[in-house]
Amino acid sequence: MSDSNEKARNSVFEERLAQAKMARKIVFFSVLGLVLILLIVIGSGYLYVKNALSPMDQENNEEIEVTIPIGSTTTQIGSILEDSGLIRNSTFFRYYVRYKNESGFQAGEYVLSPSMTMDEIIYELKDGRMLEDPALVFTIPEGLWLEQVVKLIAEHTDHEVDDIMETINDPDYLNQLIDQYTILTDDILDEEVRHPLEGYLFPARYDFIEEKPEIETIIEAMISRMENVLMKHSDMLEDSEYSVHEILTLASIIEREAQKSEDRYLISGVLYNRLEEDMMLQVDPTVAYALGEHRYMTSHADLEVDSPYNTYRYKGIPVGPIGNPGEDSIVAALDPEDTNYLFFYARYNGEVIYNETYEAHNETHQKYRHEWVEAQEEQEES
């Protein structure tokens, strides 16, 4: 081999070796750069969170009076606190409250300080005192149809049923509410939905300082309460395959079918099983809602009503809620019992019997159907 060839080979080898060293240096410094960027991001995030949770001014013990109105959402509370100079960022407050699964904030008057941490402020907000005794108090029971809720509001206020209905069905007002509340979406504007706010008026006791609150004040207090309840269970909502609208629809069915808490979760499990099996839900309360009349029992003729609410004619979850569910039914709709049951039958005495097959379910139906027939006959005679 000639000297010139040997020199050429050595030159190529040295060039490749230099290139390999350069490549390793590039990779090393690239990785080092990424690690440094990651450390900076983590450090910056840590400092941001630490700063957001810390007092606005640890040395400032100034007393600041804050008023939290009835029905305030965490978003509204955060805005009030930020505007008062007590927290740095209302959005961070909302997500921190959700992360901590905090709830139970009370309407009332508070004396807070810039020297308080966010956790200290959250603690104080759970112990509010009313500015004065409520001038108006009424309670909405669980499971009522929207028409019944409206009648109760009218009975306790000087508002007329027609005026309330006109307000809550006004397209401009509904769009305003959709912009205001995260739980409200365009689903409520579906033309087939009987009442857009059906299912969103949380059943509870309501206290109002005003003797004659506006219709909007009452309705928004009820929607705010529903949003607060749903946000308590935001983790389950995010994990659910169904939308808020669909969850409230399932919860409203569960509310109408179950009297006991344990039955709510089992019935929810049955509904999920039937949906997974592509079976019709076939629950009687949806037929009553489709007819617009409460029924002790449904007839074969009733089952034929052509309505998107009729789960004996149409598969899947109905177009909207069939009542206003309470928290237990909402949680049951989010967290169904794991079961093999595909059928359930609610007896007149409140007992619910579950079956895996149609044959067993039909036997149960034939055995206890007379209870509902007798109850209906007694009602007709009275």
Automatic annotation (TrEMBL):
GO terms for biological process: cell wall organization; peptidoglycan biosynthetic process. It holds the Pfam family YceG. It is found in: Cell membrane. The record marks 257 as: Important for catalytic activity. Keywords: Cell membrane, Cell wall biogenesis/degradation, Lyase, Membrane, Transmembrane, Transmembrane helix. GO terms for molecular function: lytic endotransglycosylase activity. It comes from the Bacteria. It catalyses: a peptidoglycan chain = a peptidoglycan chain with N-acetyl-1,6-anhydromuramyl-[peptide] at the reducing end + a peptidoglycan chain with N-acetylglucosamine at the non-reducing end. GO terms for cellular component: plasma membrane. It is a single-pass membrane protein. The chain crosses the membrane at residues 26-49. Its main location: membrane. Its EC number is 4.2.2.29. The keyword Secreted does not apply. Belongs to the transglycosylase MltG family. Functions as a peptidoglycan terminase that cleaves nascent peptidoglycan strands endolytically to terminate their elongation. This is Endolytic murein transglycosylase. It comes from Halalkalibacterium halodurans (strain ATCC BAA-125 / DSM 18197 / FERM 7344 / JCM 9153 / C-125) (Bacillus halodurans). The gene is mltG.
